[in-house]
Write a structure and sequence with these properties.
Helix content: 25-40%
CATH topology: TIM Barrel
Mean pLDDT: 96
CATH class: Alpha Beta
Radius of gyration: 19 Å
Strand content: 15-25%
Shape: globular
Bound molecules: zinc ion
Number of domains: 1
Order of helices and strands: HEHEEHEHEHEHEHHEEHEH
Strand order of the largest sheet: 1-4-6-7-8-9-10
Length: 341
C-alpha cells in the first residue's frame, strides 16, 4: 500500500550531460555515450532502490528530452532543419523538428533500454512515453496540417512501441500529457481518443501524467497567472475517469489545485504529486506525509501512489535525490500510521 514512484525523469550526471538544463547537450559521443547512458541508468536505479522507491524509472537518462527522445526513432520527421516554435499556447519557445511526411515507427525506439532496465532491477518498473497531444504540441508540422490527424498518427506509433515495452518487461507504461492542462477543448474532442489508441491492448498498467510543467521560469511565471485556485484538472479528470487508462499522475505539492478535485478520479489509481519540482528546498518527510493524508480524504489509500509533481530533469542533482528520499520516508510514515508499515 502507498507504493512510491516518480513522475519520470531525474537529473543526469554532469559527466553525461550539461546539468540543470532542459535539452542539455550530451558530453559524450558514439559508443562512449551509449555506455555512459547505461551507467547512468544503473546508478539511478540503485539510488531509487536505496531511497526506498517501489516502482522505479530509468530517470529518462537515455533521452535528450521527454518528447524528442521518442521522436528521433520515427520516420517522417526532419531533425536536421529544426524550427523555433511557441509551445503550450506559446508559453515558451522550443527548437522543434518538422513533420515532413507520414509518421512511421519503423523499428523499436526504446527496446534496448527497457530490456537493460528489466535485467538490472527486481522492482516494478515504469516506462514513460510522451502522449500524442503533447507530441503534436512540441513540433512543427508541414504534412498533416491537422492536430487531430497528426495525434492519431503518433498514437499508432506509440501503441506499437508500448506493446514492445510491455513485452520487454514494463509493469507500468505512462504517457506524459502536460498539454492536457493547456487545451481542454482538444482533450474532449480528440485527446482522450488518441491517448486510448496509444494504450490500446496493453495488459500492463497504463498511466497518464498531467501537470503544470517542469520548474523552469516560463512555467513558474505561467502559474502566477492561474489565480488562487487551479481548476484545469476539473475539465480533464471526469473524462479520464471514464477512460480506459488505469492511473493518473498529477501535481499536488505546493500547487493551488483544490485537493477535492481528486474525487473526480473515482476508480482510478492516483499518483499524487507530493514533491514540488519548482522550489529550492527538499520537503521534509512530514510534509510529504501531510500531502498523502490530505489526498486520502478523497482517494482510498489502496488507490494512492505517492509520487513527484513532475519530472526532475532540470533540477540540481543533490536536491533532487534529497527530495526522492523524503518522498519514500513520507510514504513510510503514513503506511506506519495505517498499520501497513
Ligand atoms: Zn510533468
Amino acid at each position: 500500500m502507498l507504493e512510491t514512484t516518480l513522475a519520470g525523469s531525474l537529473p543526469k550526471p554532469a559527466w553525461l550531460a550539461e546539468p540543470e538544463k532542459l535539452w542539455a547537450a550530451w558530453r559524450l559521443e558514439g559508443p562512449l555515450l551509449a555506455e555512459g547512458k547505461r551507467d547512468a541508468v544503473l546508478a539511478c536505479l540503485k539510488r531509487q532502490e536505496d531511497a526506498g522507491i517501489d516502482i522505479v524509472t530509468d530517470g529518462e537518462q537515455s533521452r535528450h528530452h521527454f518528447v524528442h527522445g521518442f521522436l528521433v526513432g520515427l520516420a517522417g520527421l526532419d531533425f536536421e532543419h529544426q524550427r523555433t516554435i511557441g509551445i503550450r499556447k506559446d508559453r515558451y519557445k522550443a527548437e522543434a523538428p518538422v513533420v515532413t511526411g507520414a509518421v512511421k515507427r519503423t523499428k523499436p525506439v526504446h527496446g534496448d533500454e527497457i530490456r537493460f532496465m528489466r535485467a538490472h532491477t527486481k522492482r516494478q518498473v515504469k516506462f514513460t512515453l510522451p502522449g500524442p497531444m503533447t507530441i503534436v504540441d512540441t513540433l512543427a508540422d508541414d504534412h498533416y496540417k491537422n492536430r487531430e490527424k497528426l495525434a492519431l498518427a503518433f498514437a499508432e506509433a506509440l501503441n506499437a512501441e508500448a506493446r514492445d515495452l510491455e513485452a520487454g518487461g514494463a509493469d507500468v507504461i505512462q504517457f506524459d500529457e502536460p498539454a492536457f492542462n493547456v487545451y481542454p477543448d482538444e482533450v474532449r474532442d480528440w485527446g482522450i481518443t488518441a491517448l486510448e489508441r496509444a494504450a490500446e491492448g496493453l495488459r500492463c498498467k497504463t498511466a497518464v501524467h498531467i501537470c503544470y510543467g517542469y520548474g523552469i521560469p516560463a512555467n513558474v511565471a505561467w502559474k502566477r497567472t492561474l489565480g488562487s485556485q487551479w481548476r484545469q484538472y476539473e475539465d480533464v479528470f471526469p473524462l479520464l475517469a471514464k477512460s480506459k487508462i488505469n492511473q493518473v499522475s498529477l501535481e499536488c505539492a505546493n500547487s493551488k489545485v483544490p485537493i477535492e478535485l481528486l474525487g473526480l478520479l473515482k476508480g482510478k489509481d492516483v499518483l499524487v504529486g507530493a514533491i514540488d519540482v519548482a522550489n529550492e528546498t527538499a520537503e521534509t518527510p512530514e510534509q510529504v506525509a501531510a500531502v498523502i493524508r490530505s489526498a486520502m480524504k478523497h482517494v482510498p489509500a489502496e488507490h494512492l501512489y505517492p509520487c513527484t509533481n513532475c519530472g526532475m530533469a532540470p533540477m540540481e542533482a543533490g536536491l533532487a535525490w534529497r527530495k526522492v528520499e523524503a518522498l519514500a520516508k513520507g510514504a513510510a510514515i503514513v503506511r506506519q500510521e495505517l498499520g501497513k508499515g
